[in-house]
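Q: what sequence does this backbone want?
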């Protein structure tokens, strides 16, 4: 877990119970969920295996240990998890080096949170090397804290990454708004006790208590996030 600015302590936005915003990366801020599947397909093709498109919903949003492990078992590929992880990270890093599109509304939301000095963390199942590369496009100045999947004992769907982010910011998880795009990430945030905004990328997500579903980040702004705290307490 790496802090990109000095510790912020516990702060509550004026006139709101919102204390912090915690953001997923792949498929939420950057349009990369498809990139991971493309890289997985290419790597397994080089190993002589064809991935079934139905497996995409199984591996999306999860930690690499889970997704890569599933694909090894499903295909019977003769490769270790450690070897496959290196190939996938290498392939993904090359892919985002050519093109890294932001999701609609992402740049505007990050700028708004920064302008209002809302403590914001990036919480991803991706490894640190990938997060640091993506931050060059997102702008590390927007985040007080970043948490990578290889920096916590258990990553998503466990609550550990979001609990670590809240603790690092010195805030109450129950007063944090999380923005996620997959059921795996939503499960992690809800297990941590956070309010969740789901912006589904690959598979549908249904609304629930303390969970609001929107079609795009373009529907999400600071007023919207503050409103979640008062509507769902």
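A:
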């Amino acid at each position: 877990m790496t802090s990109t600015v000095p510790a912020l302590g516990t702060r509550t936005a004026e006139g709101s119970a919102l204390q912090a915003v915690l953001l997923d990366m792949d498929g939420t801020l950057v349009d990369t969920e498809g990139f991971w599947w493309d890289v997985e397909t290419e790597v397994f093709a080089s190993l002589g295996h064809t991935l079934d498109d139905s497996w995409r919903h199984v591996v999306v949003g999860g930690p690499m240990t889970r997704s890569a492990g599933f694909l090894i078992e499903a295909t019977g590929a003769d490769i270790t998890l450690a070897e496959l992880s290196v190939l996938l990270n290498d392939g993904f890093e090359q892919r985002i080096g050519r093109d890294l599109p932001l999701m609609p509304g992402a740049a505007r939301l990050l700028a708004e949170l920064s302008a209002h000095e809302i403590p914001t963390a990036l919480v991803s199942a991706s490894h640190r090397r990938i997060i640091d590369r993506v931050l060059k496009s997102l702008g590390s100045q927007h985040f007080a804290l970043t948490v990578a999947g290889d920096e916590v004992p258990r990553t998503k769907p466990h609550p550990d990454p979001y609990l670590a982010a809240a603790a690092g910011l010195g805030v109450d998880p129950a007063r944090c708004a999380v923005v996620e795009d997959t059921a795996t990430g939503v499960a992690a945030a809800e297990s941590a006790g956070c309010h969740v905004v789901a912006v589904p990328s690959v598979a549908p997500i249904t609304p629930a208590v303390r969970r609001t579903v929107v079609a795009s980040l373009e529907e999400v702004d600071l007023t919207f996030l503050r409103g979640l705290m008062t509507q769902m307490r």
